[in-house]
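Please, structure for the following, as tokens.
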Amino acid sequence: MNGMRSVLLCSTAALAGMSTAEAADLPLQKAAPIEYVRVCGAYGAGFFYIPGTDTCLRISGRARFEAGTIPDPNRNQSQGDALQMRGLMRLSVDARTQTDYGTLRAFVRGEYASRTGTLLSSATQLRIANAFPATGQDTFSRVQNFAIVEKAFVQFAGLTAGRASSFFDFYAHDYELIGSTGGSDISATNLMAYTKVFDGGLSATLSMEDPAYRRQPVYSAAFASTTNPGGVPSLFGVPTTAPTALILTTDGGFNATSAAFLDAVQRQRTPDFVGALRYDQPWGSAQLSGAFHETNVGGFIAGSTVSSAGTPLPSANTAAALLAARGIESGSQSAYGWAVQGGVKINLPMIAPGDGFYLQGSYAEGAMLYTGYTYLTGSYASNITPVQGGAFQQFLSDGVINPLTGKLDLSTSFTIVGSFLHYWAPEWRSAFFGSYGEVAFKRGTREAFSLLNNLVGGAVPPNAYTNPAGFAVSPVLRDNGQIIAGASLIWSPVKDLDIGIEGTYIGTSVLDGRVADITRPVTVGGLPLYTTKRYDATQIRMRVQRDF
């Protein structure tokens, strides 16, 4: 045993000696240096260098809870919701690199929300493809998830390209929680712009922007005739969501007896062009904005000619000849609208640090979303009640095809908004805000539409000449106005935490006469028993929000 042990010890020593000798012949390897994250102070707090690069990065975000109510006295089918709730998250990444041409910046932001109830479960966001709804019996149109690329743009040497806020906007609900006043506020659109900064705080921007986010539909009267001769195709089988009628023949008086239809769906043809002059000073800022916007319709719908009972259906050639006699040869057309906006912000530190006041006004022809008149009621729809359960519908189209002239008549709109922010103490603040706006349609267009009443159903008013009493109380294509006023109280016990509540009054009215009250659909002798001129509503919402 002792001999065996000696052999093992000798062998181990020999192997150890060989390993040591061989290790001495190998080159030494140094450990890779550790790169620590370094603070980047060039662009403000929160930026750090991406290791191994000269690019500075800032990651930020938001968590928010909201709950609110809009009392709804209407308990008819699909009405009666009052509660609204939302949980929202936001993540943002800001990357900046200094170059010989100035700062190269890329900014991305995503917003995601789960929301329920009227208004928060927004039909506007469904129509513009920013959200998707639940499909259950109790959840359809009441539960909605929201996911959007809210920002994704590059800035370099005065150029901004990507998804960003419109350069037309100024106030954009800066002081509000709910954001319900009239005024342009497109938080995300696709654009490419160039900004020139001059000495003294003046800057000028020219921007080419996506028209899809600024379109209110051309008004389309839904087809409801049941008097077509047998075998005549129904417009319900035509691949368009927006047929609008042109009168072919009348009975010699005030009733259309046949009509052809245009496709009123708008196409992507021309970008919007926006210009803005901005002036920034220690006292505040001012901006003047202008926009050019195209409204368009498609051509005639093949096989869509209809006639009343007992009236021969015009052939395609006959219909074309009847239209040509009035100077209508091509259905496809464009009309070019415009908008202008002016605003001023005044800082008021003499009242309290952080206080400020906004005043803004805008006017548009055929470009309603530039005035923001639809911001509370809802966008991308030609008619809708101001809130769920409203007594009548607002009509909000950018344009209407006159069924007699065949021309695209543009609507006009304007809004005025003022907002005041006051700090009662460093951790307590309130906003007081209000707006008023109107939309108007060209005179004579509504009367021309009424001639179609025996061919096209409830989406046109009763005949203005054979049923003037019914015409007088119809809400279809009526000029309307809306006033909004509200106030908030917000507590910020620590930095970047807001706990607040806001109340809003909404008053919507027709501008001339009265209309039928759709919440009390009782008729006597074919006329509504209950009419109204305005609809008043209130909204209360609370919020808890942490930014980081």
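The mean pLDDT is 88. Helices lie at 2-25, 123-127, 316-324, 445-450, 468-472.
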